[in-house]
Amino acid sequence: MDVNSKKLERTSKFVNFVISLTLCIFLILLSGKIIGDLNRAVKSPDMDDFKDLVLLSQLNAQSAKYSSEIEALDQKKETIERGMRVARDNYKNEKESFENWLKTRRTLGSPDKDKEVTDRAGRLDAFYEVEHAWKEQLSVIQAQIDAIDKNRRSVYDSASVHNAQAQEKYYAALKTYRLKVFLVRLLFVLPILGIGVYFFIRHRQHKFYPLFFGFTLFSVYTFFFGLLPYIPSYGGYVRYSVGVLLTVGLGYYAIKHIKSFMEQKQAELKASAQERAKKVQTDTAEKALANHFCPSCGKDFFMKNWEVAQVKNTAGATNSLITDFCRHCGMELFKKCESCGGRNFAHFPFCSSCGAKITVK
Hints:
Blueprint: H1 6-38, H2 53-104, H3 115-202, H4 209-227, H5 237-270, H6 273-278, H7 282-290, H8 314-320, E1 334-336, E2 343-345
Antiparallel strand pairs: 1-2
């Protein structure tokens, strides 16, 4: 870095992250409005579109008519049942009175020939006939109710069959509608995802990378949260297939990128140490020194205690564990300042003791 300040570096990273996140949030909000309006491009099916409303109206009218007739007959039936209860009570009371009268009555003649007995038995039969007449009327009304209710059930079954057929057609149209909505969303999301992937691959070192990275975050969010929830299920085949394709695509890119990076590093290591030293950037050098690895091959430049001769003091032990050259690739790691002789990391621009410029040969 031209300005060797850790605080400035952290602040710069934080500001870049805030810029990327802010841009991503506003793009998500904007795309949410756009994606929400995309549904209007495809007409949503309505259940009433698949129903014969005239037929249903006629069936409902017939059902209402039958219900009214049944209600009227139920009221009449209730009246008859009240009459039956009165007749039954009268018959019961008269019968009890007659039986009690027979037990307490004293007559010289035969009770069968007595006129009063005959009259009272006739009144008892009259009450029974009244109750029987009410029962006959009740049976007739119940038969009428059963016939009308059968017709009403037939009308209800016809309406149910028609509604079931309409519902089946509606669900089929709804699947088609959702597929069309998904395709419309796909036409909107795929270019965004493609641009986001392109920005991530091609513009990671760009000076305006925070803006490109914000768009990349937005494209990933739009794909996974703006598109995938609307993918038709089809028993999970679509979702699993999308997962397989994404895994294969990202895995292919990752494997190819890692292999390319390894081949590039191997090609770089074939060059001389001096040529490789000239390509080491300052920020790479800072990370290499902080994590004690070679900035060229990436291997640790600290030697193990058993790799060096036994030392007499701590300071000497520390210095003896650090070599001036990488024992893996030959890169020069530490060198003495030509002005003051101080030992410095060879890839820093200035001496830490006198401030003189360090030249890489």
